[in-house]
Design goal:
Layout lengths: L7 H16 L3 H15 L19 E7 L6 E7 L7 E2 L5 E7 L2 E8 L5 E10 L4 E4 L6 E6 L6 E7 L8 E4 L6 E4 L9
Antiparallel strand pairs: 1-2, 2-9, 3-10, 4-7, 4-9, 5-6, 5-8, 10-11
Helix pairs in contact: 1-2
Bound molecules: fe (ii) ion.
Length: 190
């Protein structure tokens, strides 16, 4: 995956985020800076390849837009079909989420003894241009859904690893049952 082949807007994000991660080791300090780059990236909805913006009738889709060769950074388009939602899940690495198109709701959870997830506060609604964070330090467990039942929504996610290859977890809301999963990536539709 050659960074020179990316759309200039995405390339600016990748170069900027890579530079920040090379020079700043503290998550507390680099995360807001990557967040500002994400805010700039999603302030215009004119750069995402339509092949990575296609929804699936049954499943939300995650298309890989960029992964650095050493798996320190990946960027994904997260495409919601109408009414689609994730299970309650974690990430195990930091993530920055920018709302590009449409809108989504995110509910954060605290995982108690025995794996049972308890909601923290109310659902947060992201609108185009908004940026949100996850990480094992800040709160890593959430459930996310398309705010719309009649249209596609798309958010752009950057993660501190190759998220499609990372072993992480889903949590059953009722039983507290924890299952390991690897999300993989959808194949772009040309
Ligand atoms: Fe997530």
């Amino acid at each position: 995956m050659n960074v020179d082949d990316l759309h200039p807007a995405l390339r600016t994000f990748v170069y900027g985020a890579t530079q920040i991660l090379l020079t700043e080791a503290s998550e507390e300090l680099f995360l807001p800076r990557v967040g500002e780059l994400m805010r700039a990236l999603v302030s215009y909805d004119n750069w995402l390849d339509p092949a990575c913006a296609q929804n699936h009738p049954s499943f939300y889709q995650q298309y890989l837009l960029y992964a650095d060769p050493s798996d320190r950074l990946s960027v994904v388009s997260f495409v919601w079909g109408p009414g689609q939602s994730t299970p309650i899940h974690d990430h195990t690495v930091w993530g920055v989420i920018g709302m590009l198109r449409g809108s989504e709701y995110a509910q954060q959870y605290d995982v108690g003894v025995g794996g049972r997830p308890n909601p923290i506060g109310h659902e947060l609604r992201l609108m185009p241009g908004d940026v949100e964070y996850v990480s094992p330090h800040l709160g890593d467990v959430h459930q996310v859904r398309n705010a719309y039942s009649d249209r596609v929504s798309i958010s752009i996610h950057a993660y501190g690893g190759n998220i499609g290859k990372i072993k992480r977890h889903v949590f059953a809301a009722d039983t507290g049952n924890v299952k390991e999963f690897i999300s993989g990536y959808a194949t772009p539709v040309n």
